[in-house]
Amino acid sequence: MDTSLPPAAAPNPNSPTPARYLTHLRVERRLSPRTLANYTRDLGLLEAKAADRAWHDITQHDIRLWASKRHAEGADGKTIAAMLSCWRGFFTWLCEQGLCTHNPVQGVRAPKTGQRLPKALSADMAQQLLNSPTHLPTRSPSPQALSEQEVEGVETVEDDHSVLCRDQAMMELLYSAGLRISELVGLDVQPIQTRDYQSLGYVDMPAALVTVVGKGQKRRTVPVGSVALAALEKWLSARAQWPHVVCQEALFLSARGLRISPVVVRQRLALMAQRAGLPTHVHPHMLRHSFASHILQSSGDLRAVQELLGHANISTTQIYTRLDWQHLAKAYDAAHPRAKKQD
């Protein structure tokens, strides 16, 4: 039997089972479009291998073999772990539907891979970014700052007062509350709950709180700092004068009056970092990492950081302790009289 995996594939339309599972994930579990796209790809890989076999005939040996082959093709441990997680969930669902009697992915682990430290700005660099002058002329971000897909979707708009107010409010909120980019773009002006629509997030200005629905449909509420609130006040005033509003409920609007997209947020942040003269490429998730790192440096409270970030497991948050240790080690080397090498 051929055990190779294609680089990508879509689920076979002749087999409705993966499509039913994807519908279940979209409708009942309300996974994000990006997560659904990843699951579609990974289920396509699984279906390509099991095309001539019933699901209940797949063995743990098959799964190990396919995962090993994927690793040999260059996929890292994190990619394989995500693939196995998708497959594991699919077989669990099959068992619940009575279409399979066992889960062959149970107990199969991805190869270990080195854990990369998240990239975070220093507190000074974060201040430099957010205090950057807004009167400079518009410049396109460098090719290194944006991917080809993002370059095709960039927002071409003059940097008038309203646009600059919007950009400042978005970046202040990303850093002040540690939001994911999907959480930021999903914010509404006010909470809406009807039979047809339910807000995924909103900012309570009087209470200085932002509420979002994050990964796994986990709802969390995070404080918003005074500087971010002031930036939001300015943006709301500018938003009232936005020339063409299509998406009335969205807090942040694109030039066409639609809900702003992650691509545009990345583009505007890259431009902001260029204007601030930062020596590194800055992306939205870096502001979330910076938020976590700076809170931990100031408080030392890992549990609080876990709650603020919305991590289900504290092990996910613990990587920031390594960033904090790096910060402390540098401070020690710079300040302690016995830390420096003697000439």
UniProtKB/TrEMBL annotation:
Ranges that cross the membrane: none
Active-site residues from the entry: 180, 215, 285, 288, 311, 320 (o-(3'-phospho-dna)-tyrosine intermediate)
Domain Core-binding (CB): 12-95
GO biological process: cell division; chromosome segregation; DNA transposition
Pfam families for this protein: Phage_int_SAM_1, Phage_integrase
Main location (coarse class): cytoplasm
Record GO terms (molecular function): DNA binding; tyrosine-based site-specific recombinase activity
The Tyr recombinase domain, residue ranges: 116-333
Domain of life: Bacteria
Subcellular location: Cytoplasm
Family as reported in the entry's similarity comment: Belongs to the 'phage' integrase family. XerC subfamily.
Subunit structure and binding partners: Forms a cyclic heterotetrameric complex composed of two molecules of XerC and two molecules of XerD.
UniProt name for this protein: Tyrosine recombinase XerC
Lineage: Bacteria, Pseudomonadati, Pseudomonadota, Betaproteobacteria, Burkholderiales
Gene name of the encoded protein: xerC
